[in-house]
Amino acid sequence: MKNYQIKAVKEQGEKAQFLNLPAMLYKKSCLMQDRKMEEAVLTGKHILVQGKLRFLPFLCVYVSEGKESVAGRIALTLYEDEDYGFVGFYESIEEEEVALFLLEVCEEEAQKAGKKGLKGPIDLSFFGKYRFALEEKAPYTGEPANKAYYPYLFEKAGFQICNRYVSNFYDVLEPSYENVKAKKRLEHFQEKGYRFVHPTKENFDRYLSEIYPLLMERYKDFQGFRNISRDNFVSLYHSLKYIVDEEMVFLAYDKEELKGFFLCLPDYGNLLQKPLNPIRLLQILFRKRRPSCYILLYLAVKKGSEGLGLAFSQLATEVLKRKKAKSIAALIQKGKASEGYFQDKCVSAREYVLLAKEFS
User: Fold this and answer.
1) Taking a C-beta distance cutoff of 8 angstroms, is the pair 44, 9 a contact?
2) What residues are paired with 211 via a beta bridge?
3) What Cα–Cα distance (Å) separates residue 98 from each residue in 5, 21, 117, 150, 301?
4) What b/e string do you get for 181-218 counting C-beta neighbours within 10 Å, with b at 16 or more?
5) Which CA distances in Å does 208 have to 19, 141, 214, 326?
6) Burial (0-12, 13-18, 19+ Cβ within 10 Å), 234
7) SS3 244
8) Using CA atoms, how far apart are residues 134 and 116, in angstroms rounded to an integer?
9) CA-CA distance, 105 to 103, in Å (whole number)?
């Protein structure tokens, strides 16, 4: 039996160990680590670690023949006004004892802080990564990617599934395909005078600023959601302007009032997580100009404009048919209306979970 120990991540060497672990566990084609983001978090420079919170990263290590090896990592985020601690940035070898040690130290710290329990995986908040995938497959852009045994390790440590999510995969739509209900819904809103527009690189930040209050309102009940300022929101997402296909970003206005938005991204796989060099830049530009698949990622509709989501789906369908591209309706919470869009064309699905542990 290995003698595992828990270390708080404080020194530069420990931060390097924390950052280096994912590359030891995954094939390059499946590595979705955003190393720059993690470096900024560990040094306290990232937007999401500023404010009234405590961020506590830990390592699980063992010593063999005088050499220290990392077996796992985790980070606990504690917000003053949040009842639960969020555990995230989890990675480990397939060993129950490692998961137990890492989750136990988070539990101890959360109990000291007066929390009711733990939820995870949540990397800081809704605006970081959250959820575990239930299987290991080549990831699409924005997908949680983890070892398939992680949910099992959490459950062995006393966690239970609290939310389930699904991603629906769609093949290329034939030119003749029509969804009558979606088409009628789009015509309904157009007849009401709704305008559907696309952003450009030049005005993208302005539209982000307009989207901000709607997203804050419509996503506020999602697990791990934390309110952030408008400036921080724009700062977090402004780089999307360089990777979106403007034709697949839709905003709906009734007169001058924003009623909803639908943001889709070309699927870059894990290209965006890799170090940038001239060849990789060309690969990204090629994917942007000639995407074979789109990720249907963020959708929000203002109260009183229900049905607009299906109208957005019709607009996206028209572009997908013209570009002969596949699509993925990503990370839909089970039971939401959007889970049922275009089910007749769904060819496969992937599932994800969020887990929680209540303190007794």
Assistant:
1) no
2) none
3) 9, 14, 20, 11, 43
4) ebeebbeebeeeebebeebeeeebeebbebbbebbeeb
5) 31, 20, 10, 26
6) middle
7) coil
8) 26
9) 6
The pTM of this model reads: 0.94
Rounded to whole angstroms, how far apart are CA atoms 296 and 319? 12
Tell me, what's the pLDDT at 345? 83
- Rounded Cα distance between 318 and 178, Å, is 9
Would you say how long the chain is, in residues? Answer: 360
Measured between alpha carbons, how far is 172 from 69 in angstroms, rounded to an integer?
Answer: 46
Four-residue CA torsion sign, 255, 258, 262, 263: positive
SS3 at position 7: strand
d(CA 20, CA 9) in angstroms, rounded, equals 13
Amino acid at the residue 289: R
Q: What angle do CA 264, 151, 222 make, to 5 degrees?
A: 45
Q: What is the pLDDT of residues 135-144, one digit of tens each?
A: 999 999 999 9
Asked if residue 65 has pLDDT above 90, the reply is: no
Distance between CA atoms of 5 and 63, rounded to whole angstroms? 9
